[in-house]
Amino acid sequence: MNRSAITTLRRRWSDSDVDDLRGQLLAQSRIVTPPHTVAARWPQTDDGLVDLRGLTVGDGGLDIRFVTLHNVDLSFARGAISAFESDLFDCRFDSVALTRQPRVNRRVERCTFRDATLSRLAVGPTVVDCDFTGATARRLRSVPNTRFERCVFDGADLSGAEFRDASFVDCMFRDARFSATTTFERCAFTRTDIEFGMSRVMRTTIDGVATADRWDGETDAEAALDRYVARYARGVTAGDSATMPLDPE
Question: What Gene3D superfamilies does this protein's entry cite (predicted)?
Answer without folding.
Answer: E3 ubiquitin-protein ligase SopA
